[in-house]
Amino acid sequence: MKIRKLLFVLVIALMVSIAGCSEQRPPTADPIDLGLNQVRDMQELKTLLAKNNDHYLKDFFGFLGGVRSNDNAVPEMNTAEDSGTNQSSTTHSRTNVQVEGVDEGDIIKTDGERIYSIKYDRLMVVGILGDGAMELLLSERLGSVETSNYRYTYFSDLYLTSRYLIVIGQSWQYTHFDATGGIMDDSKEDPDQKEGESSIESVSYYYSTPTTVVWIYELETLEKVEEHEVSGYYLSSRLIDDNLYLINNHYVYNYIQYPENYDPRPWTKSNGEMNIPEFTDIKYLPEMNYESFTIITTFMLDEEVTLQQNIFLGSSSWGQIYVSKQSIYLATTVYNYDLLRGYTQKGVLISYTMNEETGIVTFGGAADFLGYVINQFAMDEYNGFMRIVTTEGWGDAVKNRLYVFERQIIDNKLELKQVGFIGEGIGKPRETVRSVRFNGDKATIVTFEQTDPFYTVDLSDPTAPTIKGELEIPGFSLYQHIWDEDLVLGIGQEADLEGRVTGLKLSLYDISDFENPVEVGTPLVLLNTQNSWSFSEALYNHKAILIGKEKGFIGFSIWRDRWFWNYYTSNNDYIIFDVNPANEQPITIKHVVTHFDLYEKNSELYSQSDQYYYGYYNFSVERAVYIGDYLYVVSGEAITSHNLTGEFSTVQEMIFIKETSLE
Fold first, then answer.
1. What integer is the mean pLDDT of 37-46?
2. pLDDT at 8
3. Which listed residue, 25, 258, 271, 444, has the most CB atoms within 10 A of its CB?
4. Is pLDDT above 70 for 406?
5. Residues 236, 240, 243, CA angle at the centre, nearest 5°?
6. In contact, 621 and 571? CB cutoff 8 Å
């Protein structure tokens, strides 16, 4: 009882402290923002952050009292291919992206003359000599591990423009604190500390600070010419023409634990020069949770690289990001709890618009919705309308919905106004959305619990979207690709009548009769054998899929494991699938490539301690590209080239660590 009283007193004191530092001042706004307020100074910024702490305290007291009022509750509603900028005269593959002309970062890129890849911290550049021949132009460790100051960087995304190669990674800086909050110097030992002795002073912890790094290389010389850092977690990025849009989340940890002079603002470091934004550059919407800064940094990649930032103070995470050539949309979900309704999900959609000529980003309105968005493909902009598909709840309470929003100015504020809605009919009871694909004024939606209803939706009238057709088959698609106007290719999992996953499944759907979609021929099912499982990155990452529409194939990597009486055995294959709608089985296995045999032939290159790691995992294939009539298959340690015509012969094998090709 004494502990509960003490906790109550501490919470009351904290609330009084927060209230005492919150001077009420009317917000200010720049008319160009049409609905956003701007932070004036440090006092106002800390007041907003204190309000967020107050929000959580309300949650706490609501829980103790039984019901917490939710001022922001949402009422129940009534009813590609990547066009890269660096072109080659030779036909070559490009990253599989959602929106044509909006490139997405990936671990491999090609311009038809070179192949660029990143694995952990190793950057590789391979020159294409013709007829499948290759030469290694660069194999460089990027120095991501700085043990002297506890800094680690993990690189994940590449981009190409006509001038530059861009490398993006997530960096972590660790600081060692003692129990009092002081910074510890690990290079010094306490001479008075006896072995086995511990005290409150000896208790310590590490605190990590995330930043996003952007390194820019001159394409012709492969020399690094720019180095930038933006504080916070790397969420996503896009490249449109010569404008790179980097989206970060800079979380504000409970700042009241920090000294009075602590500055919670995000920062940017460009070529060693630190930049902190003006307070008035930080914008926010009224009545939100103020937990973090969402930072949109625009890199104008001209001959001279310049930066422009938009900083938004709001919720701590933006779960899904969709980018068209005109807009950026960020969708997040806020969970609330009270004893009467339990957990509820409130979705928040924030939009920004981009000037196609200058690349400058401005606020584009916001909206609320119910539920959550599964991935970026459940969002789409078309003819000025934003469409999203959501799922709310679980079990018997599941509800799937489709919203249509239009950007409008209402009372001198930009808003995403709901103009269309489907609240019933998407999915059977208990089924959740598993994949969505929009294509102009049409959409296909897959839901699943035991069988796969494949729905067709007519969006030609944005104010009255309508479910037109339904196909019910076993299994479900986790990714849908628009093969042509009437065909949709699905990649997912097969399942039995009880909903248990039994293997990987590739299907082709004919939607030419939009009210009666059909599955074309017999799907390709890679069944799991006894005590085994199969998995592919293609199930959750569309960029892992190679699309060769003009050559009639797709490709991606598959892991297949099997459990024997006392151990697992695994194999990794990169598979090229032939796609021919005229065949009884329209999708078939055409070619299979593995790199595990390369390790067996070159195991002497790796030390005893590295053999298992490098030999087993780093020779697993993750991506492939094609240039002309040749396929180039890339793992962390090797690249092989193969002739796509004739007997699919191997032309050349190259091990990166040797820095020379094998004959």
1. 91
2. 42
3. 444
4. yes
5. 85
6. no
